[in-house]
Design goal:
The complex is a heterodimer of chains A (224) and B (254).
Chain A: H1 3-20, H2 23-43, H3 47-69, H4 75-80, H5 82-88, H6 93-122, H7 127-155, H8 162-169, H9 174-188, H10 194-210, H11 212-223
Helix pairs in contact in A: 1-6, 2-3, 2-6, 3-6, 3-7, 3-9, 6-7, 6-11, 7-8, 7-9, 7-10, 7-11, 9-10
Chain B: H1 6-15, H2 18-50, H3 64-91, H4 94-126, H5 134-155, H6 159-187, H7 206-238, H8 243-253
Classes of the chains: A mainly alpha (224), B mainly alpha (254).
Chain lengths: 224, 254
Amino acid sequence: MSLTHAFFAILRRDLILALRRRSEIANPLLFFVLVITLFPLGIGARPQLLQAIAPGIIWVSALLAAMLSLDSLFRSDFDDGSLEQILLSSHPISVLILGKIVAHWLVTGLPLILIAPLLAVFLGMPQPAIGVLLLTLLLGTPVLSLIGAIGVALTVGLRRGGMILSLLVLPLYVPVLIFAGNAVEMAGNGLPVTAQINILIAILLLTLVLAPWPTAAALKMSMS
Amino acid sequence: MKFIPDPVGRFFHRMASPPHFYALTETLMPWLTAIFLIFLALGLYGGLYLAPPDYQQGDSYRIIYIHVPSAWMSLFIYVVMAMAGAIGLIWRIKLAEIVAISSASIGASFTFIALVTGSLWGKPMWGTWWVWDARLTSELILLFLYLGVIGLYNAIDDKRTASKAVAILALVGVVNIPIIHYSVEWWNTLHQGPTVTKMDKPSIHVSMLVPLLLMAIAFKFYYVIAMLQRARLELLQRERTASWVKKMLMEQQL
């Protein structure tokens, strides 16, 4: 089996598995919507304040939703032993793992992007900002999955890895949050956002190339 | 082709042997302590007594003799930790793993000290305990990175596996620190600009700078002492079934 073939085989397998367990897709999405609904309840229905902090709210909620969904990335494969089979394969592990991460992003990241415009309207975000919000989510959520994969790979063997995972992963999410939140806010004020978008693209490419290596190394360590 | 000259290789091989490391650090310890105390005394004397008060900040600027060296150490130790972790991962040297994990909690303490002294300094100078300023924020995130390393190490029962996990995490962190630092810098800044590392002419007077550098050296030695003590304990803990530990304990009892 060629490498491309193996990559797509893993991608296809993970997508089929996810479609058979639809709650895995629905849970992060529901969480995302719920957290955003809680903000107006917590700070009062003040449209101006909500509009001002909308980019931050949406991005922080996306960060938390992405982090919560991470556990499903390797958990079931770790439990039933298919992760061991992947690690034993003759192909480079980092590429096969990238296939799993892509599948995970398609299942958990993409729905967030699809529902985001609705939430942006909820919070009264101005029209031009919504487009930029979608663009930053499109560039940013894959980064969240890629960096998160390192954290899950390190903690997958632990019985209670959940708490420690957030400590490992959230500080590494900071640059994405800063640039994405700032871009959306600038766009809301009618300012150009090319610089922020370019940096987000750079971060995405960098993590796409670099993140699968430590993930593979950490998985090998977790299985040993 | 050989990149590493023989004497250096021999030195590392010998350092990698636990009994040798244990004996060597025991003989080095008094010397390190003496050097640390000398630099500390000189630095404190120069900083608290000889250096003149600042024309704007009065005597309260003297907190830099703790604050700035701690902040330097917080970054320095993270890099040391990542390098030791990498050495441990690549050459499977047990001692490098121990050095890496022994550094983590010292680094976290220095980061915490830098944050607390910065906050104490910020109150009279900026009129507030905490501002979401770039350097404060990146220092806070650095503290979280340290806590992540310590938490991960404690969460994994098998310590050899835990050391590998910590090394991978520290390497990921060390790639991320510049990115986090510059993104936070770009996000917001209020902190005074660097006063020492400006290449053309430091904007700090020499009578204040010399004690600061002395204190920085003293802190480096303190780190080495504290790290070696922790490493020795960790080594004994891990090697408690090895024959050299048993032999040493027998000799001490006699």
